[in-house]
Amino acid sequence: MEINIDDDTDEEIAQAIATAISEHLGTDVELVSGGKAVAAAGHNWDEEGAIVTDREEELREELEEILAGGPERGHEKIEDLGKVFVRERLDLIFDEIEYEDGTFARYGDDDDLPADGLITGIGTIDGRRVAFTANDYTVKAGSLGMMGVEKVIRIQERAMDLGIPMLRLVDSTGARLNADEREPGDTHMDRYRGGKMFYNQCLLSGKVPQIGVLYGPNVAGSAYTPVFCDFLIMVEEISGMAIASPRIVGAMTGEQIDMQGLGGPDVHAKHSGSADLVVPDEATAAERVKDLLGLLPDSYRNAPPESPPKAPSKNPHGLDAVIPEEPNKAYDVHEVIDRVVDRDSFIEIKPEFAPELVTGLGRINGQVVGIVANQPEHVSGAIFPDSADKGAGFVWTCDAYNIPLVYLCDTPGYMIGSQVEKEGVLRKGRKFIYATSNAQVPKFCVITRKAYGAGIYAMAGPSFGPDATLALPSAEISVMGPDAAVHALFGRQLEEMDGETRDAFIESAKQEFDKYIDIRKQAGTMQVDELIPAGDLREQLEHRLDVYKNKERDPVDRHHGTVFF
Asked: What whole-number distance in Å separates Cα of residue 380 and Cα of residue 393?
C-alpha cells in the first residue's frame, strides 16, 4: 500500500506512522512525499524504524560493552603478543555467527570478566553449522572460570544433540585459581564441573569431528582440551601446551626451560606427535580449519562431502618411472600421492612426526580418502613404534568418520633392534594392525614395491580385510627381504665363509630367493586381486571407490576390542 503524506512530515514521525498503519492493517506500507519514498514497514521490518525503549537501549549498551572484551590492558597484551582479538579470530574462520550463549555470564560479579572470558555458540563455515568455544585472552589471560566451564559443557551437549562438528579455539592459561572462583571445599572434579568437559569430549569422540586450534601457552586443563580433539593445529611462536608451566616445572623438578622448549609447536609436531598441523599465523590457521572441515562429515552418520573432480597435479601415467627397480633405493612417496589424488586436495597429517609413514586426507575423483603410505625416502619406510602409533590413530579416525582408506605399501616391515624393543615396537606395532583389521570403511591395499614381513599386515594386506589388494609390476611380497632371508636360512654356513666365496654365495642365494617373490606368479595364485600397470592406478582407484561408496558396516558382536589407542 502506498500512502502520500505532507512534504514537511518529520522522518521519525513518518516511520512511526508507517509502522502503525502496517501493524493495524497487516500489510506492507510505503509512505511517499513529493514522489519520493520516505518510510516503509511490513515487508522488511527495519531496525531503524524500531521503537526502542530506555530498557532495551540500556541492555543493548551493556551487550556492546561485553562484546568489546576485557579491559584495555588485556587488549594491549594481545597486541604485544602478536595475537588478534578473539572476535576477529572468529571472523577469520566463520562466515557468520548464528548465535552465542552465555554473553552475560558473570555479569555484575566483576567488571573485568565479560562473558566470563569465553565465547560459545554456533556459526556457519561454507554453509555448514559448527559449534565452537573460543577463549578471550583479554579477560584474565583466557583463564577458565566457573561459568566458562558451564558454557563449554552446554555447547558440547548442543553439538552432540545436533550432530555437528565442534571447533575449540584454545587460548587459555588454564583454570582460574582465584579464591573467589570457588567455595571452600570446591574442586574441579565434582560431577558437573571441570571434569565434565573432558568426559563430554570423550563422548563426542567418533560422533562428531572435533578440531582444536592452539593460540597461546596452554597448561594443565587447557592443554588437555586440544589433545582430546581429532585434529590439532598449533600456531608458530605463540602457541604451546604442557601439563604444567615452565615456572611450576622449575619449582617442582629443578628443570629450567621456557614454554617453547617445554611444549612448543616443534616439540609436539616432531617429538610427541600431539600436533597434526603447525601453521605460521592465525590467518593460515583459519584456512586449515576450513580445509579440514571440507574433508570431514558433520557426524559419524554422514559421508564426507564430495566436490567436483580435479586431475592430479602430476601425470598418473608417469607413475611407473617414479618407483625404482632396486627394492632398497630411496624415493619420495609424495611423488606417488601426487599422481593419485586430486590436485591441491591433499593435507598431510603429522608430517614431521614419524616421517617414515605418510598419512593425510585428500580426494580421488572428488571423493574424500585417507592415504596411508610408507615413505622409502626415510629409513626405507620401515615401521617404527611412533609410526605404528601414528598410523593406528589415523586409520581409526578415518574409520570413525566414514573416510575410505588407500594404503600405499612399500616397507621392509617393522624395525628391529634393542632400541625399538625398549620403545614398544611390539605393543605399539599391534595397534596399527588392530586398527587396520577393524576398520570397516572401504579400504584398498596397493603394493607399490616391498611388502615384507608384518609390514603388509599393518598396510591392509590380503588377510586383513581389504576390498582389494592391487599390485604394481614393481611389487615384491615376502615374509622378509632377500638379504634377511639368506642370513636366516644360511647364517651358520656364512659364518664359515669369507671374502669372495661368501659374497658369491649370498648373491646366488638371493637370485634363487627372487624366484619365489615373482609378482606375476603370485598374481597367478590369486595372492593379490589384480596386477595392474602403474599408470592405471588412479583410474582403478576411482572406479573401486565409486563401487564401494555404499559399503555397509557389520554389526560388532562384542563391547570393544582390548587393543587400545
From this structure: 22
Q: Band the pLDDT of 496: cuts 50, 70, 90.
A: low
User: Can you name the CATH fold of 316-475+528-547?
Assistant: 2-enoyl-CoA Hydratase; Chain A, domain 1 (3.90.226)
Query: 414-420: which pairs have CB atoms within 8 A and are 24 or more residues apart?
Result: 414/382, 414/383, 414/384, 414/388, 414/453, 414/454, 414/455, 414/458, 415/379, 415/382, 415/383, 415/384, 420/384, 420/385
Sketch the domain layout of the chain as residue ranges.
2-49, 69-293, 316-475+528-547, 480-517
Burial (CB count <10 Å: 0-12, 13-18, 19+), residue 496? exposed
Query: Would you mind telling me the total number of residues written for the chain in this entry?
Result: 565
Q: 21 falls in which pLDDT band (50, 70, 90)?
A: confident
The predicted pLDDT at position 27 comes to 87
Domains 69-293 and 316-475+528-547 in one fold: yes
Instruction: Give the CA count within 13 Å in the CB-facing half-sphere of 371.
Output: 31
Determine the average pLDDT of the residues in 433-447. Answer: 97
**How large is the average pLDDT for residues 10-24?**
82
Pairing of strands 367-374, 405-411: parallel
Sheet holding 210-214, edge to edge: 96-101, 118-125, 128-135, 166-170, 210-214, 231-235, 277-279
Query: In 3D, which of 208, 207, 188 has the Cα closest to residue 198?
Result: 188
Report, in this order, helix, strand and coil percent for the chain, each rounded to 5: 40, 20, 40
Cβ–Cβ < 8 Å for 405, 363: no
With bands split at pLDDT 50, 70 and 90, how would you rate the model's confidence at 513?
low
CA distance 184 to 207: 37
Select from 3.30.70.270, 3.20.20.70, 3.90.226.10, 3.40.50.150 the CATH code of 69-293: 3.90.226.10
Q: What pLDDT score does 16 carry?
A: 81
